[in-house]
Design a protein that fits this description.
Length: 317
């Protein structure tokens, strides 16, 4: 037997004692959580990787617009982040807003700008599921990629826009007067709607107020380039406007002529596009089915064409 001094200890193994087991490697940990203010640099880094045609200023300006909107406690401000061993590897912007309408007060969430690093793409469904847990919230996607349309339907989303109309408003009925947004025209609107219109004008939208006698309503347009033809001529575009909001009770067909006159004389713009479920028979123009569809899931889906406070106006074209 080996003699040892009192200051040393060594293990003694018999021939039948097993060798010590190698330590098990730690499993990689993946988690999804709410985006915090301190995460914004990492979030914008991911978004720029996923959408390389968008500048850093594009993301920062849009998030700043959204940050200014009031939200109740407990509602995510920006959306959700996916981490792998502490590294940010995925992001889903979830732009919440409070809706007050005939159905009461409820939450609507614009799911926007999803990106997961390619090596972790298989984990992306965790991010989606985490973001859509609350069945009391209405979730909308206003810019779904074509390859995700079938997936949205499989997840219970309903189509709220099946195509777009290219409207020629000068050919519509001429009634009333359309004027640019000003303190005087905003005074014709209910206070909550006047705030909505003023917000969107500050984002860069073109705002009009139509009035006829004691009846008044608002229309908001986003500047955009319109594709002339699909496929090989998709690069060919012309300047235009998209209708992103109009007052819920506004008879759009009744105010078209006045709106068209204003757009042509003040903006040199003879047309605009609007979302629709089907061709609008009382609006002169052409309907393009299947163009820019939009989806919603939840108890209070928006009407076709209501894009207020969505990414389309917060971030711009």
């Amino acid at each position: 037997m080996l003699a040892l001094s009192e200051s040393h200890e060594v293990p003694v193994f018999s021939g039948s004692d097993p060798a010590p087991a190698a330590p098990k490697p730690e499993r990689a940990k993946t988690r999804c959580r709410i985006i915090e203010e301190s995460d914004l640099d990492a979030v914008i880094g991911l978004l720029r990787a996923g959408f390389p045609d968008r500048s850093e200023a594009y993301w920062r300006n849009g998030l700043a617009h959204h940050r200014a909107q009031p939200l109740p406690d407990g509602v995510p401000r920006y959306g959700y982040l996916m981490e792998r061993d502490g590294e940010a590897v995925g992001v889903l912007l979830a732009l919440y807003r409070v809706i007050e309408d005939e159905a009461g007060t409820h939450l609507r969430c614009n799911l926007s700008s999803w990106y997961v690093k390619p090596e972790y793409r298989s984990l992306g469904t965790l991010l989606d599921g985490f973001a859509m847990r609350d069945r009391s919230v209405t979730y909308v996607n206003v810019s779904p990629a074509p390859q995700t349309w079938a997936m949205h339907k499989a997840r219970g989303f309903k189509t709220i826009c099946a195509g777009q109309m290219l409207a020629l408003p000068l050919l519509g009925r001429h009634r009333g007067r359309a004027r640019a947004v000003s303190p005087a025209t905003l005074a014709l609107l209910p206070p909550a709607e006047a705030r909505l219109v003023a917000d969107h004008v500050s984002y860069g939208c073109l705002g009009l107020v139509w009035s006829h006698g004691s009846v008044a309503g608002a229309l908001l347009f986003q500047r955009r380039a319109i594709k002339v033809l699909p496929g090989r001529f998709a690069w060919l575009r012309f300047p235009g406007l998209q209708l992103v909001y109009h007052s819920p009770n506004l008879d759009l067909a009744a105010c078209l002529g006045a709106v068209g006159r204003h757009l042509l004389l003040r903006r040199a713009m003879p047309w605009f596009v609007l979302d629709a479920l089907e061709r609008c028979a009382d609006i002169p123009g052409r309907y393009f089915p299947g163009r820019a569809p939009k989806f919603a899931r939840g108890p209070n889906p928006p009407v076709a064409g209501d894009l207020s406070y969505t990414e389309i106006v917060l971030f711009g074209a």
